[in-house]
Amino acid sequence: MPAIIIVGAILQPLAQGVGMDPVHFAMVGIVSLAFGLVTPPYGLCLMIACSVAGMRIGDALRDTCIMLLPMLAVLAAIIVFPQVVLFLPNMISPEFLR
After folding, report:
1. Contact present, 45 and 38 (Cβ < 8 Å)
2. pLDDT tier at 54, thresholds 50, 70, 90
3. pLDDT at residue 97 greater than cutoff 80
4. What backbone torsions phi and psi does residue 16 show, to the nearest 5 degrees?
5. How far, in Å, CA of 69 to CA of 26, rounded?
6. Distance (Å, whole) CA 30 – CA 48
7. I want to staple 25 with a disulfide (CB 3.0 to 4.6 A). Which of 3, 10, 15, 35 is the partner?
8. Which domain range does residue 80 map to?
9. Is the confidence at residue 90, as pLDDT, over 70?
10. Burial of 15 per CB tally in 10 Å (0-12, 13-18, 19+)
11. Burial 36-72, CB ≥16 within 10 A → b, else e
12. At what angle do helices 44-53 and 22-38 cross, to 10 degrees?
């Protein structure tokens, strides 16, 4: 939560300056921060899950690495193709995104 508040507040004017949609900017930020929660060296969610399961982080990393490639592909798709993120908001409330 602090990362969203601090980094979002700092980078939002920059994103707005280059013409990036605020919804797209928010989704890229949230997905990248979620990606960071399961990747080492910090990986808080990975550490908590290992602690609850009673297993070593090294053992869990082998299985987690399998999921990192699809997560990276989704993040890249969101960054490269903003319409993937903006499809549903355009359907619900197109006047909001104008």
Report:
1. yes
2. very high
3. no
4. -65, -35
5. 22
6. 20
7. 15
8. 2-97
9. yes
10. middle
11. eebbeeebeebeeebeeeeeeeeebbeebeeeeeeee
12. 40
Tell me if residue 30 falls in helix, strand or coil: helix
As given in the structure block, the two tokens for residue 86 are: 């903006």
Residues in the chain: 98
Question: 91: which 2 tokens?
Answer: 């359907």
Count of the separate structural domains present in the chain: 1
Please give the span between the terminal C-alpha atoms of the chain, in angstroms, as a whole number.
Answer: 28
**Token output for 11:** 């980078």
As a 3-state breakdown, the chain gives helix, strand, coil percent values, each rounded to 5, of 85, 0, 15
Mean pLDDT of 58-63: 84
Runs of H (alpha helix) within 18-43: 22-38
Among candidate residues 34, 23, 20, 21, the one with its CA nearest the CA of residue 74: 34
Peptide bond into 94 cis (omega under 30): no
